[in-house]
Amino acid sequence: KKKKKKKKKKKKKKKSFNSTHTSIIPPSPSARTMTKPSRSNITRAIVLIAAASTFVHSFDPPTPLTAATTRAKFVSSVGSAAAAAALVGTVRPVEAAARGRATLEQSYDRYGERIRKGAAFYGSDLKKIIAAADWRALKAVTSDPPPKTKADRVKPDGGAAERAALAGPISDAKVLVAADLWAGAFSDNSISAKTKAMRDQIEIIRKDINGLNRAALEGLGEAKPEGGVFGIGAKARSKNELLKDCQQFYLEGGAAFNQFFNESNDGLPVTLAKFNYLR
Description:
This protein is mostly helical.
């Protein structure tokens, strides 16, 4: 009996040890966090969410200005610029008379007719040539004169007259050089804002004339299509694609011509006839 009692006591002690041993194992920190989030963690999460929503909201597009706001801002900026110029004594006379009326009239007489004829050709004949997809005619009217040759050197004028006659009626050499020189007549010692504005439009016209000439050369098979890698692998434009590009060049160049005339006519002396717009 005594032996049986001792065995029972040993078994009881063993059970109490196991139960005590398992109860003293502390839970892991992650287990504590997952089971019961602390108040500080909740507060931190709320702050982060709020900050994130504010950051995303800052990417909203700006509100467009209304016409009234834009007009007011423009008037304000012009008034400020004029006041600043008056303070430093840099207010200049009307730009049209910057180089004197006599000099402006000389430039007008020299270049005005070439510009007018070129613009008139642009608005009528060039439009018809593009509509007919006449690549040979388009090449001729947009091409500059050929370069000077050895045979030209023995001629009295160096062959300038003959080469000038070969220039297309809407070519750079025939019209745009004259337009550039006419724009320069509105500047004195330094290039004026008016001259810059006019020359910006000339560059647009020049780009479009070159585009028309390039299309004509491609239409005739005299030039390879641009693009690809080092000019290799470029796809040739179809007749319809060439025609569409030419129409785009024509419209863009015509708009630039009208803007050029608008700048030119602004402040022009009443003794000089204003340029007519293309229609």
